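Notebook entry, structure prediction.
Reason for the run: the old model in the group folder had no record of what sequence produced it. Starting over properly, with the input documented here first.
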Amino acid sequence: MIFVTLTDDEQLKLREFGRHEVGRVALRAQMIQLSGRGYSVPKISAIHECGEDVVRHWLDRYQRLGLEGLRDDLRSGRPPKDPLAEQIIDAQASQSPPCSGHVQSFWTVALLRAFLAIRFVLPLSQSTVRRLLKRAGWRWRRPRLAPAGVLRAKADPHRDERLAAIEQARQEALSGACRVLFLDECDLQLLPVVRAMWMKGDRVRVPTPGINAKRAFFGALDFLSGGWHYMAEARKLAVHFVAFLERILACYPGERLVLVMDNVPTHHARLVTRWLEEHPQVRVLWLPCYAAHEANPVERIWGLLKNAIAANRLCRCIDELVNAADRYFRDMPAHPVAAGAQA
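New structure, fully documented this time:
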């Protein structure tokens, strides 16, 4: 078993050497000090989480060459990176910068690189930090805004119950017992929607309006036939929504209607509630909270509409944009979402 015998002067020199050196060299000095205090090779190996052969190698180097033997030999090419760098970067990126005393709210490669160099003595380049972040599964992407409460309540406690009720209504519609319509609203704004596109040369610039304007659209998709009903208004008020409900009711005289919609305040307004009470042939099923984009096919229609008429271009006025929406809906073929629902 290998032990290093150290005099008081050698212990002092090792402590001074370890304070001035960094990284692996300082750790090697600690190995020698531990051996001088009577720690065995297996114990030192466990403390530093390395192989026993590594400990024996540096003990032997110190006995033969002294303090200079703890330094790396000159070699050609790039020195090997710290084998724990990826794990350290992954663990640090999992904690927000304020947890480490920073004022920044999220990590950048430059900030993370500077922090690693100071806290962990890891002198890595920005390209290396970026590469190790990607290897650990991190991606540089824009976060999504979530409505208040989504992060606290990630699932509607009535989700399964509501989805089961909607599925039962679909089966009733297939048997001809009722009509199921999915309802939703959206705003169409004069401010262009920016979407990825093919471009050549300089980056395309999309002009913006001096003053923004918008129109509210109400839409309803017939689950069984794929029929599309819509109405444009200045705002999404309860009185406008009731007018849209009247239009839908006129399209299905004498039929039982099941309206599937989300829980926005307009749908719970007293005017809307009173209208529903006066029309018992109309039943409402509520979509699960925070699941409208997944469970409501009308959301897909709004996305296709904006991609077709509002993406990467500026109309002269809001009326021109509304006219474009009218043309889009007039020429819209059997919608793939409706076809998928019917199947």
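Summary: The beta strands are 179-189, 214-222, 228-233, 257-261, 282-286.
The old model has been moved to the deprecated folder.
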